[in-house]
Each structure stands twice: as C-alpha cells, then as structure tokens.
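Example 9 (inverse folding). The structure is encoded as follows.
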C-alpha cells in the first residue's frame, strides 16, 4: 500500500471551528456539553453533521439503530469501504471532544481530500455510532454492539431510561431511525480517533497514542434491600441500612481492584438511594460496579470476589440483594496491520508517539469483532474526561487528525 506524502495535512483551524460549532448544540452548565443520546439536542447535532457531510458530496446512510454512515465514493466499485468515526452523544456533564473529535476528524479528512483532489481505491465512510456513552441507555456502545452482532436489536430497542422512555420510541421520536438493516455493511477496516481520557500521553509529552489493546469491562448492577426507617427513632441494633451495606461493598470493590494493581480498576459511578430523604434510613440502593482490566482472568476473578463479598456483607447485616450483569466486553487486541498504519503515520509525520492500552470502552472495541480495527489517541489536559472541564489543544487535535488521515489513506489506497 502506497503511503501518502508527509506534506499532506488536514486544516487544523477548520477542524477546530467545527468542534466549537458542534459544541453550541446542547451546551452544559459549566462550559461543556449535555447532548445525551436520542434527545432533541442529539437530533440537532445529527442534522448539522449530515448537512456538513452532504456539502462534501457524501451520501448519508442510516440504519435501524440510528447509526449514520456518510460515504465518499472510491474508484473501485467492488472495494470494501474504510470506516472512520466515533460518536456525537455526550455525558450529562460531558466535554466538547469525547467522541466528537473522532467524528469531525473523519469529516475533516474528507474535506481535505476534496480540497486537494485526492482519490482512493476504497470508499471512505464517516460514522456516527448511536448511544456510545450508555448513560441514558445502558449498556455503553449499544448500537455498535448490535452492529457487531453481540447485542440483539429488539433487546437494545427495549432499553429504558430513568423516566421509562424506550430507546426505540425515542429514536423514532427524534426522526433518526433508518430503514437499513443494522450490521449488514461490510468493512475493509475501521479507525477511531479519540481523546485519551487518561493522563499518560500528557505526562509523557507524547503527541499520539498508538492504541494496541483495549481493557475489558464488566458492569454489575447491585441492588441491596433493607428497610426504610426513621433516622432518629430507630435503635442502631434494629436497623437494616441498605446505604451502609453499599458503603461496605464499595470499600471491598476498592480493595479487590487494588489487589490487581496497577492494571485493574474498580468503582461505582451510578448510585441511586431510596427514598433519598434526609431523615429516612435507606431501604434500598441500586449501584453499578465498574471493573476493568486488560486481562480477562483478572476481570473474572474480580467479578467472582465481588459476588462473594456482597453475599457476605448482606447476610451479616440482615439485608437481601440482587446481582445483574448489565454490560461488559472482553479485552481487545486491535488489528496488527491497522495498528502499524497508525504507527507509520505518526512516524512519517514526525509526531512523537507511544503504545497505549485504552482504559475506556469505545465503539472500535465492538467493531474489532467484525473488521480489522485500530484506534488513535491524542492527549487531554490532566487526563480529565466525562467532565465539562475536559480540554484539549488545537495542536493535539490537529496531530490526531493528521495521523488518522494518513492511516486511513494508506489503508484505502490513494490512486491519484
């Protein structure tokens, strides 16, 4: 495969302007974004993305899970496309770059190719995957999971949010349910650019993370049931405090993850306490324990130990409990040829780089099951993400998009 010339670069100012314009849709309360999946704001963001893609001559496809596919034609009608993209949905208190950088960098490489008259053998498809974040509808990477055949579409569309609204109903409501059967597209390869969401690249002073592996993930929803009672008049020995049970479980989660340091992590990010009143002892708590490691055996050990500790704690306190695995995937090894294309691109362009393991889940983790896939990461300030203070520099974004373009063009094969 012929490599693109090192003087071929994206327009960093144009990419940055696009990021800022998209961030105006669904603004947060503290400078970030709240553009959760299948909200009205998500619909507006999708419409802007489609407008931009069609202005570049791309044909927009839409499947039955709402995944968007903007195709730039290749010279060989029989060649499978090279896909590039990420997601436009955000956390409730999300930043302006998580996911969005990967989608709009794909758009930018198409803009650059059009500007310079670059043609490729393989078509290039810029993708926006629906509901990557998994905040409103669990699990994360829902639609790419259906595309990859690891989740059932009917099951996915029956997911409900905190208000009881079905995924399928909301997808129709905002007008982004397509007719194309999900998962029927075939790929030559896929590349995803993403901010690191961790501190390593910034700390090491590296421009590019060459993602070789992705951590496996396990989400277990824990429900602990005690008894609502008055906080002032219920004697301590007679209490069945579900909140205290949760606290003891979370202490064990920390202990379990630390026993596999440094390449394992664990915490609970989603916590609900009922009735959540100042003067009522919690009678029920629901929380999700997030366990991660690049080693499947470690994840399985942590899951098993969590179950043992929950049972021991609840039995000892007179509480009942339920455990439900609500999400997860095995550790990922990305395609060697695609990873090499990313590394070659960084070296050709003169960007410093570092092999890295992704600590977060991404759509590329599911797509890796059905097509050769790789990821590129750029630094983010203090490693902060899923926070409105999330920040990157224009230079980091430009470097990541340059490497993305070169890796995609090497794989899609330039013909002129």
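The amino acid assigned to each position is listed next.
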């Amino acid at each position: 495969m012929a490599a693109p010339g090192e003087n071929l670069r994206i327009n960093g100012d144009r990419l940055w302007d696009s990021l800022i314009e998209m961030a105006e849709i669904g603004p947060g309360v503290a400078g970030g974004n709240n553009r959760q999946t299948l909200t009205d704001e998500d619909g507006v963001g999708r419409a802007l993305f489609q407008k931009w893609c069609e202005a570049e001559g791309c044909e927009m496809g839409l499947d039955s899970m709402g995944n968007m596919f903007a195709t730039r034609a290749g010279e060989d009608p029989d060649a499978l496309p090279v896909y590039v993209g990420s997601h436009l949905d955000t956390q409730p208190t999300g930043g302006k770059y998580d996911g969005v950088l990967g989608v709009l960098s794909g758009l930018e490489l198409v803009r650059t190719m059009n500007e310079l008259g670059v043609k490729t053998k393989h078509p290039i498809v810029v993708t926006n995957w629906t509901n990557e974040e998994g905040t409103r509808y669990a699990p994360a990477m829902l639609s790419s999971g259906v595309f990859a055949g690891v989740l059932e579409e009917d099951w996915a569309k029956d997911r409900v949010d905190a208000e009881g609204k079905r995924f399928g109903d909301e997808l129709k409501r905002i007008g982004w349910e397509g007719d194309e059967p999900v998962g029927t597209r075939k790929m030559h390869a896929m590349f995803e650019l993403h901010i690191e969401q961790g501190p390593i690249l910034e700390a090491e002073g590296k421009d590019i993370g060459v993602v070789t592996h992705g951590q496996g993930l396990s989400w277990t929803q824990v429900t602990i049931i005690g008894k609502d009672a008055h906080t002032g008049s219920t004697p301590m020995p007679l209490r069945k405090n579900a909140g205290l049970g949760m606290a003891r479980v979370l202490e064990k989660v920390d202990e379990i993850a630390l026993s596999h340091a440094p390449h394992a992590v664990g915490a609970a990010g989603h916590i609900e306490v009922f009735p959540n009143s100042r003067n009522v002892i919690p009678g029920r708590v629901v929380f999700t324990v997030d366990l991660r490691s690049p080693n499947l055996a470690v994840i399985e050990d942590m899951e098993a130990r969590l179950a043992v500790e929950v049972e021991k704690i609840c039995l000892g306190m007179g509480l009942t409990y339920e455990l439900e695995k609500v999400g997860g995937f095995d550790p990922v090894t990305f395609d060697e040829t695609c990873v090499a294309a990313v590394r070659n691109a960084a070296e050709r362009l003169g960007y410093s780089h570092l092999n890295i393991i992704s600590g977060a889940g991404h759509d590329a983790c599911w797509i890796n099951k059905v097509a050769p896939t790789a990821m590129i990461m750029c630094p983010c300030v203090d490693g902060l993400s899923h926070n409105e203070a999330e920040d990157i520099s224009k230079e980091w974004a430009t470097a990541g998009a340059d490497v993305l373009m070169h890796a995609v063009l090497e794989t899609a094969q330039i013909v002129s």
